[in-house]
Design brief:
The complex is a heterodimer. Chain A is of the alpha+beta class. Chain B is globular. The chains are: A alpha+beta, B alpha+beta. Chains A and B meet through α1 and α18 of A and α1, α2, α3, α4 and α5 of B.
Chain lengths: 765, 154
């Protein structure tokens, strides 16, 4: 079934990876086994805060089939890891800081021996008072999660101030105040954290991991193992879902450590679902205090925001998530006076980390409900209120940064205003059956692309003409399911005139591909795509020039590349690429190109740490979302019956993968809005399986309508901007606004479970 | 114990502990890693296989239950030319993203279409509701099943 058509930009290009995945042939990290396999697993703490007094592993070592039991004493290097702040132990040495902390690592001949040994590990833990609420964690005398942190339980705080002082509030005709709370969200990728490792005969440690960032992993694992990074090779196959939950170390360091004790045998670690819930990262819960002021005509005038994000016991990417939340906290609007503050706070709850949306999901939930509250107070149409304030190219956004990239929010909102879903909403609402109430809600969204100012958002692409005459594309950025690997083939194929069957793909591998950053931040195709265009064009020029010389043509203009060959159009002569490849040196057959994403020059935050954590960005995607909900008066159950997303993420390269991102983001957002009720009691997860933590099934979601607004982004590859996250931001506020319209009252805590909605309806009546 | 069954059209006989889970038998002993495991407790559908043509969760089955049965895993679904209408429709409709739910989802769809050859969209949604997907939002999966129906008709 491989497609023999040369891919074109803007045309559906069925994903090349779909074929191997649909046949069950694609090998994920979880699918690596091998002869003489050793199983590795971890003893977890089970309590959220405690001093480690002693660990007795003697009995576990006696279990038949056990190869080794390792503790922090067996770590040859530094026992701390983390993307920004290295505050997370690989194996606990002093204190347990959350229930999922790892205490001991077991290597065994079989899964059953592994399970038996884990049960025999005796831990003497002295319980400590824990802290489980971010605001309580800031209070004097609160238990400290990290005694060595100079800021107590504050991991990072950020403040951005623009415009005038407190007196600007006197100039507002309407002021709205509210506090919103959003919960943890679990990634629930179907392939739980997994990997495989082996020490090669030459001493190299090979780690195959389900990861979003193989190159960064290597620099984190190396110091733990006391090795040079070049002695470690990380290979990143397609992940079975990641969504941010594999942006950072999961199994990698533990596997590297295990491999050092496995005498050259392969070692496998694969967390089960409960371990994934307990030890993996989640979306940060947020408490968000908002004050928003406007003039009588709805012109936004002032905003004051305080955000408390619970990062759990470790940084992971908690500082960056909070910073990104602050940057987006005023929404996609012009607001001349802003005071925006955020705190990323240590607690003994599960670890907060990257999750599609990266802080923007939380603040959009709050800000877009503030906009509806304001519209009600001023008696304005919610679309018109948003349109009046929508940022345009050249405007300053809420942190005072001039938007130099394309900005299509107005176009999205105008399309929304004209769409039948919005135009005919009253007819639809009035058609509700008995004991049902209907509402239609909106949200406007924006999402930054890339790493921000300081951390270089760089990709290095490599393209090769192989001696067999194939085009080999070296993917620098992991494909975690979003389809960027196939998009790489589409881009290279369209430039080099090659059909998928004439191309090969090398997946990210620290020994074979070039460092190109993480699969995250809506940057994959933007940053890597730009690099790939450069590399593919360089190779194309080289191929055509050499062919021109061989054929004694007047110049490369006489030649074109088509699948498998170069054709001299003036004479009809063909040279197969396999022949031409032999006329190029090994160096000439390979083209590389580096691209660094543009950065904003303004410095809205005084604190250099905040800038380091990503603020500000300069290019954003935008969108307008609409949800149609029906609420059951007897049960409070909310059913989303229609959903519309109009998105400006620049030009669309492949309409199919583009729509996949929109659909997927909406449904993860609907789960977050309605059913994903992650519960933690005193640091212990109460919903640790898919029977108690409810993600949407095919029956729980509506048919979705996605309309792209294709505004050219001048810096993007073929005019594209990132689309991976922007859709995730809309569903909670759109649904919440629809439910509020239906019920006449609003919930301020999420998700909108039947109980919460029923309570609001009861209260209002 | 000794177990005889038909796997992807071929008779096989093997010796395995009677209480080994079928998903482990397939993945670890028979190297058929197309069958995925995601929850291990019957909640997600990733480990779906066909047993005597009906979809079953291989994480909830023990090896002994395969005795005398006919088992199809994702690797054995296509014909000799490597084609199956449901698989082809999943590719063409864009129903595959990360692909980890895909083998189970495809087999659940095959079972559904076997029971109900021309389902409505809501019947497709109901028929696949035991299989979780975290990437696609399901819409293109529903599209794919519809496409497969029309391909089979065509």
């Amino acid at each position: 079934m491989p497609d023999d058509r040369i891919p074109q930009i803007g045309v559906v290009f069925p994903r090349t990876d779909a074929l191997t995945k649909v046949r069950g042939e694609e090998r994920f990290a979880a699918d690596y086994y091998g002869r003489d396999l050793v199983w590795a697993g971890v003893k977890r703490a089970g309590i959220p805060h405690a001093r480690l007094k002693s660990l007795d592993v003697d009995q576990a070592r006696q279990v038949p089939g056990v190869i080794a039991v390792l503790t922090h004493r067996d770590i040859p290097g530094e026992n701390r890891q983390g993307v920004v702040r290295k505050d997370q132990p690989v194996l606990v040495d002093d204190k347990v800081r959350h229930a999922g902390d790892a205490l001991a690592l077991v290597l065994a001949e079989s899964k059953s021996a592994l399970a038996a040994a884990l049960k025999c590990i005796m831990c003497e833990l002295e319980p400590l008072p824990g802290v489980f609420d971010p605001e309580q964690a800031l209070a004097d005398g609160a238990p400290l999660v990290h005694e060595d942190n100079p800021e107590g339980n504050i991991l990072l705080k950020a403040e951005v101030k623009t415009g005038g002082d407190e007196s600007v509030w006197d100039e507002c005709a309407a002021v709205i105040e509210a506090c919103f709370e959003t919960p943890h969200q679990e990634h629930c990728f179907l392939e739980t954290e997994s990997g495989w490792a082996k020490v090669e005969p030459d001493g190299k440690i090979v780690i195959v991991a389900s990861t979003q960032a193989p190159f960064r992993d290597r620099t984190e694992v190396a110091p733990v193992l006391g090795q040079d990074p070049t002695s470690i090779r990380v290979i990143a196959p397609y992940t079975g879902g990641a969504f941010g939950g594999k942006d950072g170390i999961t199994v990698q360091s533990l596997l590297g450590l295990a491999a050092l004790h496995a005498q050259g045998r392969p070692v496998k670690m694969w967390w089960d679902r409960e371990e994934s819930f307990v030890a993996g990262t989640k979306r940060h819960p947020a408490r968000m205090y908002y004050r928003l002021g406007a003039k009588t005509d709805g012109t936004l005038h002032a905003i004051d925001v305080r955000l408390y994000l619970d990062t759990g016991p470790y940084d992971h990417l908690g500082g960056a998530v909070m910073t990104q939340a602050v940057e987006h906290s005023g929404g996609p609007y012009r607001i001349p006076h802003a005071r925006l503050r955020g705190w990323s706070v240590y607690t003994n709850n599960p670890i907060g980390g990257a999750f599609r949306g990266f802080g923007v999901v939380q603040v959009t939930a709050a800000m877009e409900q503030m906009m509806d509250l304001l519209a009600v107070k001023l008696g304005l149409d919610p679309v018109q209120l948003r349109l009046k304030n929508a940022v345009r190219c050249g405007d300053k956004n809420c942190v005072g940064v001039t938007l130099t990239g394309s900005a299509g929010l107005e176009e999205c909102l105008e399309k929304m205003a004209r769409h039948p879903y919005w135009q005919n909403r009253q007819i639809w609402i009035q058609a509700a059956g008995s004991l049902k109430r209907r509402g239609v809600g909106l949200a406007a969204v924006m999402h930054a692309m890339g790493y921000g100012t300081v951390v270089p958002d760089v990709a290095n692409a490599q393209v090769e003409l192989t001696l067999e005459g194939k085009i080999r594309v070296y993917s620098g950025v992991v494909d975690m399911g979003q389809g960027n690997a196939a998009t790489n083939l589409q881009i290279a194929g369209s430039i080099l005139g090659q059909a998928p069957g004439q191309m090969e793909l090398v997946q990210p591998d620290t020994d074979r591909t070039l460092p190109s950053g993480s699969a995250s931040a809506s940057r994959c195709t933007y940053t890597f795509g730009n690099a790939l265009i450069g590399a593919a064009q360089a190779l194309k020029e080289r191929i055509l020039q050499r062919a021109s010389d061989l054929l004694m043509a007047a110049g490369p203009d006489e030649l074109v590349l088509v699948s498998g060959l170069v054709r001299r159009v003036t004479t009809g002569q063909d040279i197969p690429l396999a022949v031409l490849a032999k006329w190029l040196t090994d160096t000439e057959r390979i083209a590389v190109y580096r691209f660094r994403a543009p950065v904003a020059q303004e410095r809205p935050a005084k604190d250099e740490q905040v800038r380091l954590h990503g603020l500000p960005h300069c290019i954003f995607s935008y969108g307008a979302h609409l949800a149609m909900v029906e609420v059951d008066e007897l049960t409070g159950a909310v059913e989303v019956q229609g959903y519309l997303a109009i998105t400006d993420s620049g030009r669309v390269l492949n309409p199919q993968t583009y729509e996949q991102q929109i659909h997927g983001g909406i449904v993860q957002g609907l789960g977050y809005a309605l059913s994903e009720d992650f519960r933690v009691a005193d640091g212990r997860i109460q919903t640790s399986d898919l029977a108690t933590y409810i993600i949407p099934t095919a029956m729980d979601v509506p048919e979705m309508l996605s309309i792209p607004v294709e505004i050219n982004e001048p810096t993007g590859p073929f005019g594209l901007k990132g689309v991976g996250e922007v859709a995730m931001n809309g569903p909670l506020p759109a649904v919440a606004n629809a439910v509020a319209a239906a019920c006449g009252g609003r919930c301020f805590s999420f998700p909108l479970t039947s109980e919460r909605v029923l309570q609001v309806m009861t209260f209002e009546s | 114990m000794k177990i005889n069954f038909i796997l992807n059209g071929r008779e096989i006989e093997l010796t395995a502990p009677s209480d080994v889970r079928v998903v482990d038998l397939l993945r670890e002993e028979l190297e058929l890693t197309g069958t995925k495991e995601s929850c291990g407790s019957g909640e997600c559908g990733s480990c779906t296989i066909l047993v005597d043509g009906q979809s079953r969760l291989s994480c909830l089955m023990l090896a002994a239950q395969l005795q005398g049965r006919e088992v199809t895993t994702i690797e054995g679904l296509a014909d000799d030319a490597g084609r199956h209408p449901v698989q082809e429709a999943f590719v063409q409709a864009g129903a595959v993203q990360c692909g980890f739910c895909t083998p189970g989802m495809v087999l659940a769809a095959v079972d559904l279409l076997d029971r109900r050859p021309d389902p409505s969209r809501s019947e497709i949604r109901e028929g696949l509701s035991g299989n979780l997907c975290r990437c696609t939002g399901y819409q293109k999966i529903v599209d794919a099943v519809e496409m497969a129906v029309h391909r089979e008709e065509g």
